[in-house]
Write a structure and sequence with these properties.
With 349 residues, the protein is of the alpha/beta class. 23% of the residues lie in helices and 26% in strands. The structure holds NADP nicotinamide-adenine-dinucleotide phosphate (NAP). NADP nicotinamide-adenine-dinucleotide phosphate binds next to helix 2 and strand 17. Homodimer.
Length: 349
């Protein structure tokens, strides 16, 4: 539908980056500003206006808050401009033949109430609205696909193998652990509080778990949990944990390099000391970026929806109400404040 002179203009609060960040980000590095949005697409364009319902808070957004001299795999945010993130949205107006008002989608959108999406073909349709729509920021969205491809495609698990997951109660980690159990693996997780450790054992079915903040010797903690060593490490944190894991890997083990959150706020990344283990134990360490697998999303969505329906996978979310609370929610990731997948509820319909 083309823009009309009578198209409604609505209030559109948005979250912008105030300045490039060094070190730990602070709420004050972002700003919630009042703006307006026109609920119409430019005449002749194939854009869509969407109403954002749920916005995702993801650790990789920290990287985008700094200025990089060399381009990374995603562009830096620009001070003064709205942040972008994965979100769940409802189409309000569309110049794109593939979308009509009322369609439910997830994909890259703005940290704001309404967004003019200029490339709606990048959005994914929501095929299972019977689940909470917020799941499309997590178990049925980007983090879910991350857990799935990082475990199955990169780590290539076999039944009976020993699997270790760090940041195990988070958006990605809780799913890796459950997928490992479905595969018939023995799985242990680490997390940063006793509450999270309890969740791992009682809700997500991990065989064992420990609070890494209470362990003085990570190597000893891993030896206690894996007397026979680790076949697969699903790496979410890096730093001292990676070093301790390398000492405990088994012959021909695999390390699925998903993320290194302990390094994201450091000016100088920490080194890895035990790399010779990779040689001696013939370990395969492999990084991946979920975006490379977006073409496989449809197959993943069906499989994960099946697991949810059968009760084989459960999912814990940490939902913050109101777009004005986005900066605090995002920063909380780097202090371990989130219990489960962190997201912001902007509107309920
Ligand atoms: N490769 C990809 O395509 C891809 C896609 C999505 C996510 N990722 C990566 O996957 C990892 C998990 O992401 P997520 O979305 O699932 O986040 P999340 O686990 O839901 O939240 C982040 C968690 O990281 C832990 N953490 C924070 N600072 C830490 C530190 N210094 N040392 C150890 N743990 C720390 C905290 O849990 P505790 O309380 O347990 O410390 C925090 O709750 C991140 O590294 C992220 O960058 C990669």
């Amino acid at each position: 539908m083309a823009a009309s002179a009578a198209a409604a203009e609505v209030s559109n609060r948005r979250v912008t980056l105030k300045r490039y960040v060094t070190g730990f980000p602070a709420e004050d590095d972002m700003e919630v500003v009042a703006a307006t949005a026109r609920l119409a697409v430019p005449p002749g364009s194939a854009a869509a206006v969407v109403k954002n319902l749920y916005l995702s808070c993801d650790p990789y957004m920290r990287g985008r808050m700094s200025r990089h001299d060399e381009a990374s795999y995603v562009p830096d945010f620009v001070p003064g401009e709205v942040l972008t993130t994965f979100g769940v949205s409802k189409v309000v107006e569309s110049g794109h033949p593939g979308y009509k008002p009322g369609d439910l989608v997830w994909g890259m959108t703005g940290c704001e109430e309404y967004t003019l999406v200029t490339n709606p073909e990048t959005l994914f349709r929501i095929s299972h609205p019977e689940f909470p729509l917020s799941y499309y920021t997590g178990v049925l969205g980007m983090p879910g696909l991350t857990a799935y491809v990082g475990f199955f495609d990169v780590a290539k698990p076999k039944k009976g193998e020993y699997v270790f997951v760090s940041a195990a109660s988070g958006a990605v980690g809780q799913l890796v652990g459950q997928l490992a159990k479905i595969t018939g693996c023995y799985v242990v997780g680490s997390a940063g509080s006793d509450e999270k450790v309890n969740l791992l054992k009682t809700k997500f079915g991990f065989d064992n778990a420990f609070n890494y903040k209470k362990e003085h010797d990570l190597n000893a903690a891993l030896k206690r949990c894996f007397p026979e060593g680790i076949d697969i490490y699903f790496e979410n944190v890096g730093g001292a944990m990676l070093d301790a894991v390398l000492l405990n890997m088994r012959l021909r083990g695999r390390v699925s390099m998903c993320g290194l959150i302990s390094q994201y706020n450091l000016e100088e990344p920490e080194g890895v000391r035990n790399l010779f283990c990779v040689v001696a134990k013939r370990i395969r360490m492999e990084g991946f970026i979920v975006m490379d697998y977006f073409g496989t999303y449809g197959k993943f969505e069906e499989e994960m929806a099946g697991y949810l329906k059968e009760g084989k996978i459960t999912y814990v979310e940490d939902v913050v109400e109101g777009i004005e609370n986005t900066p605090a929610a995002l920063i909380g990731l780097f202090h371990g404040r989130n219990v489960g997948k962190q997201l912001v509820a902007v509107a309920r319909e």
